[in-house]
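Quick one:
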Amino acid sequence: VNQLVVGSDGTVYSASDDETVGIWSGEDGAHLHTLEGHTQSVWCLAVGLDGTVYSGSDDTTIRVWTHGGWGGPRLKRILEGHTDPVLSLALSNDDKMYSASA
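Output:
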């Protein structure tokens, strides 16, 4: 696990070397979902107030995942443009996303 983030509702998100984002219940630790799509290690996460998940990876992309409702989170878009691994993500108070790579 490279990073843990706790959402505003208490849900826990994990960024992992296995190229996935894990989603866990903050109440009992139960595994809820696994987000798959990155092609290399996931280093960083940010979670918006509306539950949107942003994941940054060694594959130089940021993936944006929607809450998804009953079907679980779904990939909304892939943000490309970094030429190095995405190592840090942050959200401002109005949910603007910032990223850094090295």
